[in-house]
Amino acid sequence: MSEKLKSTVENAVDTRELADLSREKAAEIERSLEKAVEKEKSNAENENSIKHEAIEIAARQEKQQEQKESKEIKEDKPLTKKDIEASYKKTLENVQDQLSAPSRAFSKVIHNPVVEKTSDAIGNTVARPNLIISGALGAIASVVVYFIAKRYGYLLSGSETIILFVAGWSIGAVIEYARVGFINNRKNS
Fold this sequence. Notes:
By secondary structure, the protein is mainly alpha-helical. The chain is 88% helix and 0% strand.
């Protein structure tokens, strides 16, 4: 019996030693995991700081490049009217070369200097979009005039639409030029 007791005591001692060893191993593994997590956090923080530094460097380099380009532009001679016209003609020729024959012919007609200048002058004065719209609204009002004339039996001469277009255009012109004048006075103030 004493041998059984001795082996039980030895087993209990071995079990305690095993439990102690397993606790030590568990603590060691836990410390290793904590170190790994801390290292991962540190790596993530380093990665973020590296990204921020790279973005800042790229922004600085882009700003320096823009400043360099703006200095180069300032150092260049200013464009003359001849330079602008030559560039325009060259671009127009390149585009016309890519068009079909009918489109190329039409392009040459409408880009004729006389036609272009006339079109620009008319577009900036008489045929402004707002004026055309107000004239069209006046012409649409001729429908109302037509219905009133039909109801009361008046005879129409046929020029009512043209007269109302001109009236609408005139009202639009007054409003447009007053608005433009008001905006210009506001900017100058």
